[in-house]
Amino acid sequence: MTGDRSWATRLGKSLLVLAPHIVALLRLDDLNPLAETDHRVQRNYAVPVDGEDRPDAGRFIRERGEILLSAEQARQATHGLVLAGSTRGLDDVRGPVLLVPHGGGLGQYRSGELVTGLDSSRLVRGGRVRADRIVLTHGRELDLLAEVCPQAVPHAVVAGDIAFDRLVASAPYRDQYREALGVTDDREIILVTVTWSARSGFGIDPRVFRDVAEAAPGACVVASLHPQIWSQHGTGQVLGWLTDAVDAGLTVLAPHSDWRGAVVAADAVMADYTSVGTFAAGFGVPVLRIPHGPQPLLAGSPAAVLAAEAPLWNRKRPLAAQLEAAQKAQCHGLGAHIAGLVTSRPGQAGKILRREMYGLLGLGEPARTVPFSPAPLPRRVTWPVIPLPRSR
């Protein structure tokens, strides 16, 4: 709802989705079904202006037909609930805040002595905890929070991981996901997924997608790039960089499209330290790690366990044998181990999060059962012209 409430057909409490970038926006999308059918609630969006504001986040919101409030509109209103994908912008809005991690949990990576996402410099401002509820995916994060920011412990709720729960809920639709990727036979699908930054797999080696496609000529090789890569460099430029890989047979997931359908469809996943790799391993897909630059990982986190126990891709050796080694690691319990680290409330995140959301809204929960919808079909990049054969 924008502007003058006298124009409104329905009057309800404002649920503000505060998303500083598309990564946070896509994660918060998993919470939308928990309240979107409720006539007592009006969902609005805002993009904070402190630090990570990206024009494509606002454009993406508008293109989906959502209400995007200006920073001033978001600041002036008092909201019934603020869903936040990071701590950015929290001090500029009024209303109870539910802070949700937008990666594989808040306690994954180390930055010096601080734990990214859980340290007091992020969670506390002016002696006050900035969020009314801080969502944790696992009980071990609660122990970690007690160590690095004890003041925030009373605000924490261990809810599990709704992104992982939706991935699991998508398993019965594997055939549909494979067909959406253009595979209607028994061809092997290899998903190659990378995070952003100069130390990522793509950051240190721009040939990574082309090399995998050339190493697996009989397979459907699919690329999933972190949204930040598309945002920072532009869709046209990234597609330009991938042209040689596409000529070699690469299929590219469309910018900002959901990766979970591709994980369900995949026979194997190759990943750097992106959280998609840990989700895939926990889901039961064999994971072969892509070499990357140094990235400090928190001991015992899913990303750290995957880095320690999954095989590392060696270009000098046949790819098929290395994918078999990744499959053996799954057979020896790696996936079950990681799944137990991804969430300590498997299958419960929707129920817990809806309870917290409505408690902060001050409304009774709807009688309708908690929805658990599968991930949307993956979308492929459609190339405007047929790529020319590469010169050899």
Any overview of this molecule?
The protein has 18 helices and 16 strands. The chain is an alpha/beta fold. It has a 7-stranded parallel beta sheet. Strands 14-13-12-15-16 form a 5-stranded parallel beta sheet, sandwiched between helices. Strands 6-7 form a two-stranded antiparallel sheet. The chain starts with 12 loop residues before the first strand and ends in a 31-residue tail after the last helix.
What's the gyration radius in Å? 21 Å
Number of strands: 16
How many H/I helices?
Answer: 18
Major sheet size, sense and barrel closure: 7 strands, parallel
Structural class, from secondary structure content?
alpha/beta
Q: Please give the share of residues in helix.
A: 25-40%
Low-confidence regions: none
Mean pLDDT: 90
Strand order of the largest sheet: 3-2-1-4-5-10-11
Q: Strand portion, in percent?
A: 5-15%
Shape: globular
Distance between the termini: 57 Å
Characterize this entry briefly.
36% of the residues lie in helices and 15% in strands. It is α/β, with parallel strands linked by helices.
